[in-house]
Amino acid sequence: MIKRPSYSEIQRKIRQAREAILKNNFSILKPTVIAIDALELGIHFEEINPVLIDLLDEIGPGNYEGQYPPRGPMKVKFSGPSFLHFVGE
């Protein structure tokens, strides 16, 4: 049995996320939580896109900490996107 997600699958998801942010074609599920965290870090919520790009540039398949196979969204039903769990330094 193939271990999922594969290295290339994770790389592709990171690349797709980066492209979505660059095109401003994404949604933040809990904007209030992200806004509070951003303010605590001295980042204005309106300036979050470059920060997200920087974070995506710093992670890779080695940072994946999710389940194999990945667990889908828990409470919210989506068509299309999936969630991968990462841990950074």
Please name the defining characteristics of this protein.
3 helices, 89 residues, mainly alpha
Task: Outline the structure in words.
The chain has 89 residues and is mainly alpha-helical. The chain has one domain. Helix content is 42%, strand content 0%. The protein is built from three helices and no strands. The model has no long low-confidence stretch (mean pLDDT 80).
Order of helices and strands: HHH
What value does the average pLDDT take? 80
Instruction: List unreliable stretches of 5+ residues.
Output: none
Give the number of helices. 3
Strand content: under 5%
In total, the number of strands is 0
Give the N-to-C terminal Cα separation.
31 Å
The share of residues in helices is 40-55%
Shape label: elongated
Estimated radius of gyration: 14 Å
Structural topology:
Elements: H1 7-22, H2 31-40, H3 48-58
Helix pairs in contact: 1-3
Quick summary of this structure?
By secondary structure, this protein is an all-alpha fold. It contains three helices and no strands.
